[in-house]
Structure formats: C-alpha cells, structure tokens
C-alpha cells in the first residue's frame, strides 16, 4: 500500500467500494473540537492518495460508496452528503425531519436492483429506508417490539426487487418490510444460543451468517432462513461472507483483533488491525501496510498446480516446460494426453487457469502451454485463447499500483468492459482508457469518442489555462471524432462560468442545430440568429425568432430582425398566416408603404361588410400614393367603383354580384340578360373590345338568342373576326346559324370555316382558289371514300399548283 498510516486504522471510519474500488478514511469521526477537525481522505485500492480535506460538517456515523463510486457520508442529524471520487461536493439530502431530533445511531449503505440505498436506525429505535438515492423516496418501517435504543445487530436484505431489514433484538429476530414486522426463527438455532450479536449478508444477498453471544454460528439462506448450524467459541469483531460464484461450499470469515478465521478451513494471523470488504468472489483484507484478497482457489487452478496432479492441464503445462528444456519427455507427456483424447480439455484448462492467476509470469507460462497444445489440434476454436489474452493484458494494466484497481477475472466479467472503461474515465486515466478501447477494437462512439468527450468536459474546468489555450487543445485532441459533440463540451464550459470559452468551442461544432440552443441559453441572441440563418434551416430560424419575440420588447425585436433579411422575410411569412396585425406593425416600423397597401388590400377580402372593405381599400389607396405606385392606386380605386356598382345592382336586381371580378360580373350580367348594365361596365372600365365581344358572343350563344347574336354581329365590324361566331355556333350545335357567318370570314380562314360547318365542297373551292397545298391536304384528310370526285378535283389542283 502506498499510504503511510502511523496510527493504523484504529478509531477511523473506513469504507471501501467493491470491485477493487477506492477507499475512504475518516479519522476520529465523532471529534467535535472546532480547532482540530477530522480529516477525510480518499485513496485508490493501492493506497495512492486521491483527495484529502478537513471535515467541516457534523459528526459522521457511516461512510459508504454508491454504484457510481460516489462517497456517501451519513451524519448524526440524518443528512447524507455526497462527494465525488476527488472530494468535490455534489449534493445532499435528508433522511427525514424526525431524524433531526432523535439522531442517527447507525447507518448502512447498500446496493439494490434500484441503485444505491441508505438505511438508518434512529435513537427512537425506528428504521428509515431509501432504496435509491437518485430517486429519493423515504420509507419508515414498522416498530420492532420491545426494542429500546440501538439493536445489537441488523442487516439489509435485497431479493426479488424487495428490500427488507433483518433486526436482532436480544434473542429475537425480526424481518421488517413496508407494512409489517415479522418474527423469524432460524431452524436449528436454539434459544440457549443467546442473543445474536453479529450478522452478515453475502455479496449477492443470498446467504446469511448469524453469530450469538455464546459463540454459536448459524449460516443459511437469507430468505427464507434455512441450513444447519456451526459452533465457535470466541466472539469476533468482524463477520463476512466469502464464496466463489461456482463453488458449492460458501464460507464465513471471522476476524478478531489479530486473527482471521475461515470457518471450516484455516486460520491466518494478522499483523495489524484490518478491515474486511466483501467481494463477489472473496474478501478484501485492508490493513495499514498491505491489502490482500482472500478467496477460494479456483478448481481449475487446483487441478493444475496440486502435487502429483494428472489433470490434462497439468500434463500439458509440464510438457511445455520439458519442451523449453529440449527434453524428449515433452513428447511422452503429449502422447499420454493424446492417448486419453483430452488435449482440447488441457488447452482449455490452461487458458481458464491463466485467467484466474495474478502473477504475469504464471499467466505467460499457462498461455504458452495452451498455445503449445493448440499446435497439435486440427479443429480448435482460438476465440477463447485470443479473448483471454486480451482480457489479461487489460487486467494487468489496471492492476498496476499506479492505477489501483485490483480486479479479478470473475469481477471483470461481472462488471463488463464498458463499466471498466467508465471507471477509468471517471478516475481520469484517459490515456489508459483510450489504449484499452483501441486494443480491444471497441467502436469509436462506445470507446475512444466517449473517453475524449469526458476528457474535454474536464479540460474546460481547468482554471489555470486561458480560454484560447483550452479551445485549441480540445480541438487538436478531439478533431472530428465521431460521437463527440462540441456543443456538449461547450455546455459544460458554460456551466463552469466560462461563456467565452463556450462560444469558442461552439465555433468547432458543425451542426447549427446543436449550436443555437446553447447560444440562446447563454443569452447570445444575435449570434444565435446569425448561426440559424447560416444553417439554412428554416425551422431553426423560426425557433430563434420565436425565442427573441418572447424575450425582447417589440421595438428591439423588430430592429434585430431588420439586420437579418432572411429572418425578417421568414417572420413576415409567419405573420401572414398567424399574426396579421403584427405584420402591419412591422410594415409601419419600416415605413414600407407598398407592403402596407398590399396588407390593406389582402385584409379587405377578409372583411364581410362592404363599408369595412371600402375603408380598407381606401387605406390601401393612401399607402400606394405614399409609395408613388400610381398603377396600384388606380387599380384599387377601380376595385372600389366596381364594389359600389355591384352593391347598387344587388339592391336593385338582387343579382348577387358583390365580390365578383370585373369579368365575372359582366358574365353574370349577360347571363341575367342585363346587357345594358354590362355595356356600361364595358365603357366605364375600358374593357378591351376583344374581351367584351367574346363575353357577349359566348353568353348569347349559350342562351340561344340567335337573332340578338345576328344583330350584335352587324352592329360593327367584329374585332375578333367571324370565325369565332362559326365555332361558337357549332359548339352550341347550330349549323344553320354557323353557315350565316361563313361568308363573312376572311379568305385566310375560309377553309377552316367551311370545314367547321362540314361543307367539304366549299372548303375545297376556297383551298383551290387560294392555291394552298396545306389547305388542300387538310380538306383531303376530311374526305371519305364516297367523295371520290372531290378528291380527284383536289388532287388535280395540287398537281397543277406544284407544277407552277
């Protein structure tokens, strides 16, 4: 151990985290003198100092570690203070107000399927339980009958997602749950055994050990209580469970002042006062000078290394040793293994035994023996061999005293590789964590990138470096690593009170969607808006604009948007659909008379009352005049005249014209037979002659007013020609009327007119007269077999035309 404890572990609170975790030490925890405060020290499992600081809070009753390697300090007043591995205070919570008066007599930190829990017993002999400190819900358990003051011993049991407390009150034993207090009687433990003074639960909470004042030891399953009894003659000061996961013989370890006893096995003298820490596959013995792991020797190691062993693995190991000596005995051992047909088993035994060994030289000897045996196997999967080699290299690296994580292979497999990397990262062994990730070829987003992200988050907390230096260092190290978000690192910098550093880091973030939310949180609205516009993401721009609208007064908001034309344009589109009045205010702010005029015109269509619509249009005319847009002003005035005209006709004739366009109004008037009024609109609004003639022609033909149509055609020369009359008449199925206008058609359109009315001879004569081959071809295409004479006539004309 690296530490130097002159006074040993006496008069100290000691807590060690499982899986080779850190050790917390608080000397003289109940000292109350303000001049000399207790010192809280945190060490790695190898005794290397991690943190040390004077304890300035209240008297501490118990220390414990969470599943996340956070240190929990339970005080007499029921307050639980939580520190990280480096001694930085994180948060605190209370175990209830009633605890403040009655004080905490004893506390325990335990691990359950829900997370890390805390259990306490108060001066009023009541138990309070919290099964998960991350989601704190306090449970006050029922009273224990006849219990006065502190119980002689108690333990927390967790099974099947249920947490209970086992309490000893004299010779009686009770199980407390949420609603009841139940007396239990361990089978085989007679009343003459006396009061239970010590109890211990196994690492898995499956087994329980009880020790009585008369020296009797009872071991069995924790729930329900069963199994036989074992006798002892001395009272231990510490009791723990020791069991290898696949062993059929769970053991109990008892410790006196300078003696350690494994029940049913051996006694071990201790050099100084020590602390026992239960592990998954053994017991850690922590002393002031050294730390040891007591565990059952794995069966495979026993088979290989016991004296005169004839196990396949032992023979293979011996064969390899003789091979290295260039001895022919190697061949004899190999022959013996092959004759028994157990060479594959021998290789597997050597690999498995190497995984359980701590000494690198022994590991190498076993793995070389396994490699030697593999050479003589034709069908043997190398996966186990390769995996074990890699795992041993990782385990040897973390077992180094500079790292201080003495994990066994069994603990490593239970912990999983991801948790091991998390612990290395949490302890800031970043180079080692990165090397492990690369060596084991873990995907970047699960390995190297995750390590770099944590490193960068710690880097921004260094107060001795400038913002520029930190930003350059983070960019150089992280680069474009997948899975590392600069915005997350920048958020950490902002939380640490370094906003300028956060902005510099955000410049390296490629995704604008990650930059903008943090900039808004930092109150850098202008920069956030610029980043959103640069991204080209309209949804992101709308998000920033909405935030600015809610945070700024209207004048400043409009002035901000004026500096960002893209954002202003998007906001105008939004207002057109959602907030028309805001759009009007925006145009007023900018003195944009043209857009104000457009706004009034658009608004007029939403007004159901004519007076309101006319008022809106008049406002539009005023704005167009201010904008010097004479065309728009005149068009709007004509719209107002049309509305008044429509309203007048609606009142007089009930025509229902209000809101129609000029052309639709004229069509409606003609369909109602109000030709004079339609003609009035034609003159007043200077409707083009061609449009008016088309409207009237169509209207008269649809109403089959053929006499009126003929009079209309003779009123003056048609601006649309007379082919239109022919086509409209034919469209309305009146060939007779259509023929009246064929003669008026111009020579260029004669053929089309004759064809329209089905007069092939007339069309042929017109085409021949004009000597137009394309027109002759058009007539020929319409001829049938019965028109042979006409076809000959046209063909002769085409030939004659071609000769000329």
UniProtKB/TrEMBL annotation:
Alphabetical list of Pfam families matching this protein: Vps16_C (PF04840), Vps16_N (PF04841)
Keyword annotations from UniProtKB, A to Z: Coiled coil, Endosome, Lysosome, Membrane, Protein transport, Transport
Domain of life: Eukaryota
Keyword Protein transport: yes
Coiled coil: 607-634
Record GO cellular component, one term: HOPS complex
The family this protein is said to belong to: Belongs to the VPS16 family.
Name the UniProt record assigns to this protein: Vacuolar protein sorting-associated protein 16 homolog
Lineage of origin: Eukaryota, Metazoa, Chordata, Craniata, Vertebrata
